[in-house]
Amino acid sequence: MSDRDGKIWMDGQMVDWRDAKIHVLTHTLHYGCGAFEGVRAYETEQGTAIFRLQDHTRRLFNSAKILRMQIPFTQDQANQAQIDVVKANGLKSCYLRPLTWIGDRKLGVSPKGNTIHLMVAAWAWGAYLGEEGMERGIRTRISSYTRHHVNITMTQAKTVSNYTNSILANSEALDDGYDEAILLDASGFVSEGSGENIFVVKDGVVYTPDLSAGALNGITRNTVLHICQDLGLEVVQKRITRDELYISDELFFSGTAAEVTPIREVDRIQIGEGRRGPITEKIQKAFFDIVGGRNPKYAHWLTPV
Ligand code: PMP
To answer: Within a 13 Å sphere around the CA of 103, how many CA atoms are in the beta-carbon half?
Structure first.
């Protein structure tokens, strides 16, 4: 990925993709204290637009605040950087990756006196869990790894180090022949996927774990909550048990990368009819209408590039 054409915004400068480099003694590389975002831009009839840009940038700055890192740019500058990167790379639809990290000035654990940096890259990225999965649903397993407890590395921050847990869970699932992992919290209740929030449909009601289960407060999760309200679907945020997943009618993941991905299997147990369920399909369609600029109610969530 380092050897390609294109531009990356790095600390206020647009630099060539191949030159966007940092030193091996970078603090974040050693200790994992950093924060990032995953954002998507979609092609709409009105041109390319970034979905919920301000919300993603706010979460990035809140993640940094939780980590006691002071990003040396304003949120407006970070928003503009993301618009500029999409433009500079001539992308019609893409995934954006803003990341803030601690520099290489010193390598003690304390980051005091070190520099804080910000970069934004963008590239084309299709369906995260596969095109087929979007229609047929994906296969998952409950991870043998526990999701972070809320008082360990902070679960409302999208931190770099939280993803070691995600990588372990995702790798285990892939090695075992599944498409993705579902993690339980430290008390054994359902938390989230390795990079997605999870939703359960049972008897026409939509359930999702409340955030005390250590799940990230997903922006797509919030979008799905709006969609459910628009569709007249009751939503309940509560503690959810592993076996509630097994006997659900439908399950799906939400996330910027994963968008709305149906789940057809958990631990080799078929969910519902073993394919994308009708409520999931409705929510998925409403989601793609919103990000595609086909729902005027949510036009304010789209920032033109
Ligand atoms: N949980 C985790 C662990 C994630 O990495 C993501 C992706 N950012 C999500 C949930 C979904 O969040 P969002 O909808 O804001 O992308």
So the answer is: 14
